[in-house]
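User: Could you walk me through two proteins back to back? I'd like the raw sequence and the structure tokens for each, with a short line separating them so I can tell where one ends and the next begins.

Assistant: Of course. Protein one, sequence then structure:
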Amino acid sequence: MNMRGTPQFAVVVTLIATFFWGSNFQVTKFALASLPPWTASVERFFFAVICIFIFFAWKEGVRGRVLTQNWKAFIVLGAIGIAGFNGAFFIGLQTSSPITAALIVATTPITTNILEAIINRRLPEFIRVTGMVISLLGVAIVITDGRLISDGAIQVTMGDFIIFIGSLGWAAYSVGIREFVSNSTPLATTSWTMLFGAIILAFIAFFIESPIADLSKGTLESHLACIYIGIGGSTFAYLFWNMGISIRGAGKTAIFFNFVPIFALIIQIAMGNMPGLAQMVGILITITGVFLGQSAIKPKKLFDLLLKRSNGELR
């Protein structure tokens, strides 16, 4: 049986995408050790664009018809989902704490479903909303180690607001590639949006920093990190994410974004840093919420099964 194009295949490639994004948190530390953020981001997408277009040309062939038909959408989506999201994250972290930033980004599945519902003029299923809320709670527990609020209050900075705008940009990108791009494959959409996003990032980098001089001063370790982030954490991640959206839709795919901090934590464990009890509880809650939101867990069927067992109807 050919798995390609099936919901099961979409789940697998979506999980792979979130793994790559989760690994970016650790690898980015090596990239930023000797490179400024905008320059590192440009180098990352330089390798990503080369890699994706080589694969694009080999797999499908680069045809002008798709670009001619969708060039406006590709530019806008590249600006929002590639340059906008990454730029807002880098700028926002200048005043926002990593914990607060991660919590804000974790709201992306909720905003994605809201945007998709508004565009399609329908409400998301209650069970999906419930699953998202539960998984979001789990993510909050993981990234705060059980401390959801410190000092009795939540302090919002300008960086928090900027990161929230960036998360809205990613939600709009996830919905937009399905709603506003026509007659294009996931590979073509990923390639063109990534190209335009990289061009916009380059303009910003040359305006704010000195990329050429900074790249010449970078260490081999930082450049290797950028290559990994560009190929794995950008090319394959974006491609697999778009494949998932094309098969299952933006709403069903977006909830898997909550796995990004979970995979980041797993990589942290592999590097010798064990999580606490609160983080382990958060992982279980997140996974439960994701499966619930994907309707992999049917509450009514589960309740009926437990009821039958308690009545001795099952052996």
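----
Protein two, same layout:
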Amino acid sequence: MAESDGQERTEDATPRRREQAREKGQVPRSRELASASVLVIGALSLMWFGEDLGGGLMDVMKQMFSLSREEIYDVHRLWLILSGSVWHIFWPLALILITLFGAALAGAAGIGGVSFSWEAARPKLSKMNPLSGLKRMLGKQSLVELIKSILKVTLVSGVAVFLMWSSLNDFHQLTIEPFPINLYHALDMLLNFVLLICLSLLLVVAIDIPFQIWQHNEQLKMTKQEIKDEFKETEGKPEVKGRIRMLQREMAQRRMMAEIPTADVVITNPEHYSVALRYDSSLDRAPVVVAKGIDFTAMKIREIATEYDITIVPAPPLARAVYYSTELEQQIPDGLFTAVAQLLAYVFQMNQYKKGRGKRPQPIKSEMLPIPSELRR
């Protein structure tokens, strides 16, 4: 089995590998299918259009062998006769050739489809290397082609002998039939022989197609390292993806920190959690989480809140409930409306007290805030 960098090609080709191979013109092809389709369709087209072609040829021969002396020595009249004679056989011959052309295209694209590739058509010096040519001559592919050739010769010879043996009575009949009946009979026998011999090649095609598909898949097989390298190229290297994710987190964190000054209150679990809430009745239908974090991020949120004189309220159960139930820029769940409303009322009263417009509110007790059991953490 072929090896690459000491590794065996044991893995099936990926879709990307198959697509790249197709772009280079590397698709499964069966020459036996192409040749057999041309031969079979050619034999059928002769049976379909052969009578018209034969009649046209007969008319041409009759006209050419019955030329008068004046016609022979008149170049202009001779040219008109020749062009008219060719027209008798043009359409039957054109139909046969068009049918053969279609059969050739269908046979060539039978298992690999239609594929145009400049890469495959480009001249390669490696194909002109005598050593490479000798290697191909002595390779496995050449051995397979030799076996197929022997099989075809044996098959065609066997079918031809069988047909001739089974048609001995028809051969004897030809000797006693009058002309031109015996000629038509012989042509019918010949066309039937050609068609049956061509059909026998379908056995070779039935063997060749699965072999070509299997060989193509074997040629495209990859090593485990090649699959890993392709994954890195298509999906990105893990370290690069990790770096991108880290940069994305840093950008999101910077945006989050920039939103903290818009908050009305920061709820904390003094040891680990911090959640910043904003409530603007002209913008928000309910309080919105503008920042949240744990450990170092929580401490940073408290620092920014202190810098911008934002009220910080220790309420561990509520801080944990909001942190786990609400994402950034989302409204708090319905179950926390009452608890957050009580907290915001305390904050607004405290802000009025700081401005000298009211009495100092009673400190809020976090244990008294109503938090549904399904939202507790």
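The two ends are 59 Å apart (CA to CA).

Let me know if you want the two compared in more detail.
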